[in-house]
Amino acid sequence: MAYLNWLLGEDTRTQVGNVIIILCLYPITNWIYNLYFHPLANFPGPILWRASRLPHMRAVWGKHFPYEIKKLHAQYGGVVRIAPNELSFSEAAAWDDIYSNTDGANPKAFKKGEIWHGNLEPGPSSVFTTIDFKEHGRIRKFMDPAFSERAVLQQEPIIRKHVDTCINKLRSRPSRTVNIVDWFNFTLFDIIGDLCFGESFNCLDKCEFEPWMDQMAASIKLNYQSINIRHFPIVNWLLKPLGGFLIPKEIIKQHMDYRQRSTEKLERALRSNDTDRQDIVSQLLKSNERSEGLTHEEVLLNSMQFINAASETTATTLTGVINHLLVNLDSLSKLEAEVRQFTSSAEMTLQALKPLPYLNAVLNEALRMCSSIPIGYMRVSPPEGGIVAGNYVPGNTIVTVLPVAVSFSPKYFYEPESWHPERWLPEAETDPKSPFYHDHRKAVRGFGWGPYNCIGEPLGWAAMRLILAQMLWAYNLKKAETPHSKIIWHEQDCFGIIIKHRLDVILADRIA
Ligand code: HEM
């Protein structure tokens, strides 16, 4: 008490005044520390961003975070301090340095961190939110076989059934102009639902989303913005009990509904005992029979999260392809010519489509230009720090490679702002006369890199090739004459993922 009196003064007025002075001094000393004495003090970046997390928070709460950071890279170079304890890289070498360490026991590994990936509530483990490397490895060990190239080939009849339904349903629509984004989402929800829960959501049959799907973007946005709060443990702790009041009721209701329906689907999958069904859920449930295998609660939680992870990302890439093809008619013709060499749509199997160079090239170019997770994939540096793109990064720093900065860098790509699928053709790599010969193709890591990379990459490729090829086989695509005939990509809101605008397309039946 005597110490407090000495510090704050004797009478109440002086004490209040001194408390106010201390409260003002705290952030000021903190800013001075961050600017001049913090281990990251020597990294470049705007002064306000280096001093305090508030500008970063403002950018996250705004709608165009990755583009703001991209501008900072243009101004400050390949590494920018975008918050007191956070660095963004636009150097391709950083992919390997940050993400490729496959041995989590290695003290030098950069890992997922509590703030971006930690489990909010105690409970079953999810492949996304498990920051413990060993636990992540256990889950991946049981999941990997269900997502392998081989498994995807066995899943082909299920994938194919929904793609066929999409093509036929589109044909029966009264109007030739459709919002292609909805149709990609219908198809992907049905495919992933069927693979992960043993039954489809029937979006294609009903031509509509389930109510919880309508809330999905809102709930992803909320989660993304609330990550801001986790940087301030006291505020986070104070706000936690209010979570139930702060989260919109509709989102909670739809999430509970989704969970309930998912549990019922999973119980039906368990009861059906159809262990021969070649889908993801059967494989995951079977792992329960093995020591340390996935519990039913873990299968449920992960399957629910797969739906988000798989549908949004894949639909974004496909939307990006169509958006560019409609204004690059030469590119569209080349793709049509490649796909239409087949004599029937039945011939277009996953195996037959896999080697098509131009089909792969347009998808790779969309992964470059239309990143589905443009904010990057956050990691935390090991306690004793590590080297990233030639820079020593002190311990416990949040780091990422910013996909939109690397993918659009003239340092790595010829005419980076332009649509050139040709840069991905095999001859571009071997012909020194090609303008794309010097392109640094490994600068794009659309499916992530290293031990936390995308488990669904083979499925993503399979679904994208099949949907795109079958669509171009069945229809001639034309730009619509509506206000939504083109998406200006960077004008779309970004809350971790891209909140896609609608894209109207005319699908004219093709006379084969
Ligand atoms: C074009 C389609 C897709 C793209 C661009 C994509 C992109 C990515 C990226 C960049 C990551 C890594 C994030 C990080 O490092 O923090 C990731 C992780 C993941 N993706 Fe995908 N994804 C796609 C499709 C799919 C599909 C079809 C599935 C199937 C369920 C899926 C499931 C997952 C899962 C489970 C993870 C977390 C893996 C882990 O942490 O071990 N994704 N995805």
What would you say this structure looks like, in words?
With 512 residues, the chain is of the alpha+beta class. The chain has two domains: 1-37, no CATH class; 38-509, Cytochrome p450 (Orthogonal Bundle). It is 54% helix and 8% strand. The protein is built from 25 helices and eleven strands. It has helices spanning 2-8, 12-37, 47-51, 54-61, 65-76, 93-99, 114-117, 133-147, 149-154, 156-171, 180-197, 203-206, 211-214, 216-230, 233-239, 243-246, 249-272, 280-286, 296-325, 329-339, 350-353, 357-369, 403-407, 426-430, 457-474, and strands at residues 79-83, 86-89, 177-179, 379-380, 386-388, 391-393, 398-401, 475-479, 493-495, 497-499, 504-509. The protein has a four-stranded mixed β-sheet with strand order 1-2-7-4, with helices on both faces. A three-stranded antiparallel β-sheet has the order 3-11-8. The mean pLDDT is 91. Protoporphyrin IX containing FE is lined by residues 127-128, 140, 306, 309-310, 313-314, 317, 372-373, 377, 446-448, 452-456, 459-460.
Biggest sheet: strand arrangement: 1-2-7-4
Question: Which second-level CATH architecture of the largest domain applies?
Answer: Orthogonal Bundle
Which class of the largest domain in CATH terms?
Answer: Mainly Alpha
| The CATH H-level homologous superfamily of the largest domain | Cytochrome P450
Give the arrangement of secondary structure elements.
Elements: H1 2-8, H2 12-37, H3 47-51, H4 54-61, H5 65-76, E1 79-83, E2 86-89, H6 93-99, H7 114-117, H8 133-147, H9 149-154, H10 156-171, E3 177-179, H11 180-197, H12 203-206, H13 211-214, H14 216-230, H15 233-239, H16 243-246, H17 249-272, H18 280-286, H19 296-325, H20 329-339, H21 350-353, H22 357-369, E4 379-380, E5 386-388, E6 391-393, E7 398-401, H23 403-407, H24 426-430, H25 457-474, E8 475-479, E9 493-495, E10 497-499, E11 504-509
Parallel strand pairs: 2-7
Antiparallel strand pairs: 1-2, 3-11, 4-7, 5-6, 8-11, 9-10
Helix pairs in contact: 8-18, 10-11, 10-25, 11-19, 19-22, 19-25
The structure holds protoporphyrin IX containing FE.
Family: Belongs to the cytochrome P450 family.
GO molecular function: heme binding; iron ion binding; monooxygenase activity; oxidoreductase activity, acting on paired donors, with incorporation or reduction of molecular oxygen
Pfam families: p450
